[in-house]
């Protein structure tokens, strides 16, 4: 298993813990506003960390096409979020834009 997949799994577990386990542990009580806000912001921050980590491979050799297509995908995701779309829609949109650009530009 490569380090990228270890990072993906760790971020997935962290996001799941923050979004599911913490509210369940509260046992039906209302969470403080600051904690609700932190949980809401945690998932996009984890996704951004994942994107940044996967952009730079361990060899240090990053092609400009790879970087630009990934940044275009992130930009598409940000635009979808700004347009009040769900995080899932933004993630899928970012992935599709990145994949299509990599298909076209190699």
From TrEMBL:
Pfam families (UniProt xref): AzlD
Keyword Lyase: no
Coiled coil segments of this chain: none
Family matches, as InterPro entries: Brnchd-chn_aa_trnsp_AzlD (IPR008407)
The keyword Transmembrane helix appears for this protein: yes
Keywords attached to this entry: Membrane, Transmembrane, Transmembrane helix
Bilayer-spanning residue ranges: 6-26, 38-57, 63-82, 87-105
Record protein name field: Branched-chain amino acid transport
Organism: Amycolatopsis vancoresmycina DSM 44592
Source organism phylogeny: Bacteria, Bacillati, Actinomycetota, Actinomycetes, Pseudonocardiales
């Amino acid at each position: 298993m490569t380090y990228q997949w270890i990072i993906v799994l760790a971020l997935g577990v962290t996001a799941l813990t923050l979004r599911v386990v913490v509210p369940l542990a509260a046992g039906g009580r209302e969470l403080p506003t600051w904690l609700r806000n932190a949980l809401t912001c945690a998932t996009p921050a984890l996704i951004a960390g994942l994107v940044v980590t996967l952009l730079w491979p361990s060899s240090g050799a990053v092609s400009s096409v790879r970087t630009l297509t990934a940044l275009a995908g992130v930009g598409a995701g940000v635009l979808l979020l700004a347009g009040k779309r769900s995080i899932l829609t933004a993630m899928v949109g970012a992935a599709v834009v990145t994949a299509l650009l990599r298909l076209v530009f190699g």
